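pinging the channel bc i need a second pair of eyes. not urgent but kinda urgent?? the chain im working w is below, pasted from the shared doc
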Amino acid sequence: MRKIETEMNAAVMLGRDWTQANTSTKRIYGADAKVGVYLHDNHIATVWNACDGRDRWTVEVNTRTLSEYPTRTTMSRLRALGADVCTRKGQVMLDGEALCDVLVSPIKHYTRPSMLTGDGGVIVLDEIGGNDL
């Protein structure tokens, strides 16, 4: 997972508004703890129940954006959130089905990633508030 994706997941988990390069998260205030994830200002996913460090979250992929922009970067960000998305023989696949066959936005349950780096160090999140996790 790329550093920007690790930071994106941390921002989602903490429910923080965050921006780094072409990727951003925005907390959606209301009854449910939701965070919108954006790539180049295009909404690519909504994440429920991720705020406040919860252990599990739910991801809803914006299939319209994915079908318009099926780029490697879009799919990489979605995979970092836990969505099962890839390209096979030029066809975008979501949860093992061709994207054109998916009629509604699929929901994927995801257990949050470890916030530890591969060498056991802790990631410093200066960009989203200067907090060490």
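so The chain is about 20% helix and 35% strand. and Helices lie at 3-14, 63-68, 72-81. — does that match what u expected or am i reading it wrong
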